[in-house]
Task: structure prediction
Amino acid sequence: MRRGLLLVLLAALAAGCGSSSGPSGETTTAASAPPESTKVVVYIVRDGKLAAERRLVPHTKAVARAALGALGFAVTSLAIDGGTATVELGSPPTDLERAQVVFTLTEFPSVEQVAIDGRTLTRTDEDLFAPPIVVVEPQPGDTVTSPVRVHGSADAFEATFQIDVVDHDGKVVAHRTVTATSGSGQRGSYDVSIPFEGAAAGEGKIVAYEDSAENGDRIHVVETPVVLS
Result:
């Protein structure tokens, strides 16, 4: 009897080693468990201008350094203190690469400006390399529900621009006038939640644009394809 009980206990212990049950009840071995990762927003170059892109980097306390590494930059040193990120790269950056670094690092709430290449810069200083309206999220291909959160940065006339939610039939299911924290030559941030209803489920898009002060035409149009759920 004791021998039988011992064999049962040993079998139970062996079954428990090296495996775990997740929230869904699915059992995975330690070897197959995915490594921890962190989502970051970096600024790539698209059509000669900066564009925000979500990336996954290995989990680390040095997230800002990892974000630059995801762009291919070799970082010699990086320190953040009092809102200023001081960074030194392995080689002198081009003007566009410097703008990538400034926009990527100032995506972190703790960074307001970047000291690089002998200069201390904000996003406004590098505005030449960014489109007037930048949508950080949602990202292309994201599935969104109501209300959809849209955030990013903009340098628009009087800091004001428009955002539409459009379904795959071309129907505007939501419209919002957005005011960034600054504009008219100063890049500001925006973060809005836009409820929508009556949308045909499936492919849609978030359309951000500015109304021309000259003739009312749409200018600086940014379209982000999404899936409306």
Helices lie at 2-16, 63-70, 95-105. The radius of gyration is 24 Å. Confidence is low (pLDDT under 50) at residues 1-33. The chain is about 15% helix and 45% strand.
